[in-house]
Every structure is written in structure tokens, then in C-alpha cells.
Amino acid sequence: MKKLNPMAAGLAFGILWAAGVLIVGLIATYNGYGSEMINTLGTVYLGLKTTLAGVLIGTVWGFIDAFIGGYLFAWLYNKFA
What we know:
Shape: elongated
Structural class: mainly alpha
Number of helices: 3
Number of domains: 1
Order of helices and strands: HHH
Oligomer: single chain
Strand content: under 5%
Radius of gyration: 15 Å
Distance between the termini: 7 Å
Helix content: over 70%
């Protein structure tokens, strides 16, 4: 059975989630759509607000959060496999 590379999984999860936070954050900043999601995520990701700087800060937090989650997912999968 092939094992997962935890670093690759962490990067994949991190990049995908950070891109999602960035896109929704930019839409919320310039259009208002999705602002409730950004406000909710802002309770977890310190500094995430509907401003350009806030969205960039939230994107970094989102990457770190999902990277750790993806890494742990692959590590745990490998332990069970």
C-alpha cells in the first residue's frame, strides 16, 4: 500500500484553503458577499477582517491551519495504513 507524503498533503490542504479564504475575503471586501463567513472565520483567525490587510493576514492563518491539518491527516492515515 502506498503511503501519503505528509508534507505534500499539508501543502495541498494549506494552499487550497488559503486560496479559498483569499477569494472569499476579497469578494467580501469589495462586494460584501460572504462577509458573514469572514466575520465568523475572524473569530478563529486573529486579524481576519474585510479589509485588504485583514484578508492577507487571514490567508496566512488559513494556510498555517490547513497545513497542520493536512500534515496530521496524512501522518495519521499512514499510521492506520
